[in-house]
Hints:
Elements: E1 17-23, E2 44-49, E3 52-56, H1 62-69, E4 80-83, H2 89-92, E5 107-112, H3 120-127, E6 143-148, E7 153-156, E8 159-165, E9 173-178, E10 183-187, H4 205-218, E11 223-227, H5 232-237, H6 246-256, E12 260-264, H7 272-289, E13 294-297, E14 303-307, E15 310-314
Parallel strand pairs: 3-4, 4-5, 5-6, 10-11, 11-12, 12-13
Antiparallel strand pairs: 1-2, 1-14, 2-3, 7-8, 8-9, 9-10, 14-15
Helix pairs in contact: 6-7
Amino acid sequence: MPDVATRSSSGTTDSALRVRFWGVRGSVAVPGSATARYGGNTACVEVRCQRHLVILDAGTGIRELGKRLSPPNSASTDRIWLLITHTHWDHIQGFPFFAPVYEARRRIGILSRRASRSGLRRTLAAAVESPFFPVPLREMPGSISFRELRSEKFRLGPFRGQTAPLNHPGGGVAFRLNTKSGSVAYIPDHEIPAPSHPGSGRHTAAAHRRQARMLTLARGVDLLIHDAQYTPAEYAQREGWGHSAVDRVVRFAAEAGAKTLFLFHHDPDRSDAQMDQFLTEARTLARTLSPNLRVEAAQEGMEVTAAHGSLHVRSHS
Length: 317
């Protein structure tokens, strides 16, 4: 596969791994004063290394990223790779509003697992056909290509990619991207099954096998971005919905030996003030399980830089 090559928004070309959150909310976008600090857009994460760009998911957050990538903000003519975990609305809703797809000079490669019996291209094309959207995929000026991943491992420029299946209704795939400077695992829309009694209740033996593969995916990762939509009490009422309780996520991160956990896919009904308390409780649990585990709650605009063992997090607030 040809290399990715896209200049960073800051103009730097160093070898650090850079991550920026553009959408952190789950299920549905929730703009407003109650969510202004953590953000109300749905899933979209920018990952850069050197001059290479990968975008994780195309929720509503990708609109602002597209504006940053387009003139006059950027003169780059390089390729963009977009990795789609699954094609539920909150992960593709922003795609038709992503400015680079309307720029003829752009080459945009879209990768995922097989999204349905129709395939990734036809699934995404159907989402922007009339009467849902006025510009069909075939009329978008950008050069858009599709690749359905059939192997657990792939390569994009300096990124060595790895996948594992999600525990989520309809399926999906999580991604890990390794570079010489650091690594990031992206696991949205994933339900961690109960740690004991495999096959009991809603959690099948297959769910536990998928969880074992997820543990392998996340082992020793520098940045773990993980679905933590529910409190334990909320999860008790929503078991089987395909999302995780935060206490299980913290335990998973500790077991995997992750360096930093970013809570992600925030519940649309959780306000900024409630998110603060949510994060405090997660950090308290982390200290009892793994004192070296750092826990953050992803915020729109938050930028993370990893370089050879060091990690810097800068919030927009």
